[in-house]
Write a structure and sequence with these properties.
The protein is 11% helix and 26% strand. It is of the alpha+beta class. The strands form 3 sheets. The protein has a 5-stranded mixed β-sheet with strand order 4-3-9-10-12. The chain has a 4-stranded mixed β-sheet with strand order 5-2-1-11, with no helix packed on it.
Length: 237
Amino acid sequence: MAGSSDVRITVTENGPYRVTGSVPLVPRTILTDGEGFSVEWGEGEHYATEAAYDLCRCGGSKTAPSCDRACEENGFDGTETASRKPYLEQAEQEVGPALILTDAENLCAFARFCDPGGQIWNLVQEQDEASTALAIREGKLCPSGRLVTFDEQTRTRNEDDDEPSIGVVQDPSQGCSGPLAVRGGIQVTSTDGFDYERRNRQTLCRCGRSENKPFCDGSHAAVKFQDGQLEPGAVSI
């Protein structure tokens, strides 16, 4: 995991995420294929940021993804409700011929990379190399880290060594803006100073509606959250 102690996201009380450590901020778009399946990430030009900056988490900022202090006027309740257990204590485990799949469903950010090829839960039960390779790929594309695959023999986690960054997600096929996709083991710290487990992939709520704060639970899709930067129409490859 690429994260280090000088990069951090601090959840402020009923306020924004405070990002420190010169973390790159980049637009990330869920790209779909001709059948509408999520298959790849598109990345835009990095935002201009300072060494420290604030990101909106109430969903009301007119300068998204930056905070404009709308949270001070709209009555935002940012109370954290997420489990503080380590990922593996939250996850269910499924064992296949070549892979182990762990699944912490409460972390789902509804990015849908797990669907192509008959869904990752079925793919891990297949014995052919193509299914195994697709399951590994889908696990790595899951932005929230809900899904992780391990080699069944060595118990090695299939994970890319991502550099720390924060992705501002857009989901054109669903007609909504998505969460903050945090990569590279950035430390997320709660309002009371608790350090959540550092994970290579995490998604933080920025629509203000998650019931698993500070993490995303897919509510942005249900409420069709718009941050003002979503371009209309699905983006396919």
